[in-house]
Amino acid sequence: MEIKEKLQILADSAKYDASCSSSGSKRQNAFGNTSFSGICHSFSADGRCISLLKILMTNCCIYDCKYCLNRKSNNVKRALFTPEEICSITLNFYRRNYIEGLFLSSGIIKNADYTMELMIKTIHLLRHKYHFGGYIHAKAIPNCSEVLLKKLGLLVDRLSANVELPTEQSLKLLAPNKETKKVENIMSYIKNNKSRKFTPAGQSTQMIIGATKENDLDIMQKSENMYQNYNLKRVFYSAYIPVNKDKLLPSLTTPPLVREHRLYQTDWLLRYYHFKTKDILDEEHPNLNLLLDPKAFWALNHLEEFPKEINTASYYDLLKVPGIGVKGARRIISSRQHFKITFKDLKAMGIVLKRAKYFITCNHKYFTNLSYFKKNFIEANLVLEDKIPPINSNKQLSFFE
Amino acid sequence: MNTIYLYHDNFISLLCLIDYLLKNKIKPDNIKDTSYNATLLDEVIFLKIKEDSNIINKIKKNYSYRIFKIMYEVYLSNHDNKELIIYYFFLNTLKYHQDVIYHRNLRCVNLALKIAKQVGNEAHKLKGFLRFKELKNHILYAEIAPDNNVIYLLALHFKRRLPHEYFIIKDKKRNIYSLYDKKEVYLISEDNFNLNEVETSQEEKQIADLWKNFYQTIGIKERKNERCRMNFMPKKYWQYIIEMEDEL
Ligand code: SF4
To answer: Domain containing B41: what range?
Structure first.
């Protein structure tokens, strides 16, 4: 098989994995380095950042996960890269500045350890024969042995394992060969061994959204637990795209992209805005509002905490204002020590007032008559202003990572 | 009459001039480099000032690296009055020292910060969007046409990244080249440099095609989102991004 066809098959079968960031690592070698803040080299037709050569080593697989294109029972063309082929493509692309590095995952060929050893061999060649210093993210193969995890972790910037589905029940249903516990073992191992040498950029994971019946509360609780227990850098949410027909799978025509977007926004709130899942979702309201972003929705339902006075509110209170982010809040804090901030100044400081203005005062002045500070007035305006695309939830805000 | 002060077309010359003007409490109507075409309304003054590169260290030491970086980035911008903006930014720096960056309520400070950010953003974008091709003699060659003069920043980035490669970057808008000879980065204007052979090898086309094919494959058609792509990768860069050539 020609290399072009191989690349086509093995990129096509890797493309559903959402994790593509390349930040958080400082590495310098004779051939290449990593950029701590991450660099996007291109954007694909779906608007996602391309920074890594994202491929599978092989799409052969002994497992039969229902949602996966590469499952054993599918009749698709199979291919397998040799280690040297992967090195050659990576180096040639890297030199021309097409990519930041390599993302290597794989279907399971023969068994988990055999597959891992092939991956290790490939990456070892890259690092030690070709002195490649670019970014490498590898996916650990579930059920592999610890010795191999250790070896691989010492070669790559990021090593991660996908939980795939939010509950053990769903995993049993759709990926009968996988076990949540095994994935969690890998995650704890990585967490416990992380150092400057071992997976310096940490780990991430991915969950498929909408293939099974979990609600947003289930999903965010799972994420929250994983952030706490395994020190994950990111959880990626991947709207389910039907590639197979199966009576166990939902028959969707379009992937749940808006829902995915709202989950990413909630995820931001957990990681950078000191929110907890229970602030946003509960048994009575287990799903996110699709019309409003979760912070605006939360603020609307807690109007008693607003409006916040820009010149005196604490950092954490500023973060609760819809439309004010981490950078904005920091900017406000450092500026107001030097002058009293007005609405005009906020604009000059680059803070978008479109949504924020309903929730703040500047020197005790509201942007309009304070009698408008009412739930239905604000809600109507917010819904009008919240248009979904072209936001890409999957973008890299390198500043935070 | 507009009093215009001139500097040699380089950053150190500009900083030394501004430093001199501020020390002598001179308020210029504008500051321009020597290529400036004066009009009848201009009074052009070209002072003989000792130009000392130490001024950069002084700024870094007395204020902060950040202040130096802002001034430098504004200098690299394509803003018409960038020199005057640096002058007023410098003036406020004398007053507020390193805290000047928090005074966004001052128009000139805010403007300087904004411009610096734009320049930084463009440089960062191009670190990703720039595409090298390999010439027959194995030298890597890239063309760009940025809004701001970021070629030197890019060359330094690639020097760190590919220390054992020769490379040439050409800014087609400004007709300048940046060369790297595995030791140093040089900036050369077109007049002093003749690059007649930009012929690429056969292998080059194969690798570019492989990449284009990868690019086509990696997009998920069920998620197609043209507006989002445009947002992150504006069309003005497409002509130099090889995988976008065919879509132009
Ligand atoms: S293990 Fe499951 S998800 Fe992974 S390649 Fe095999 S079938 Fe697909």
So the answer is: 2-122
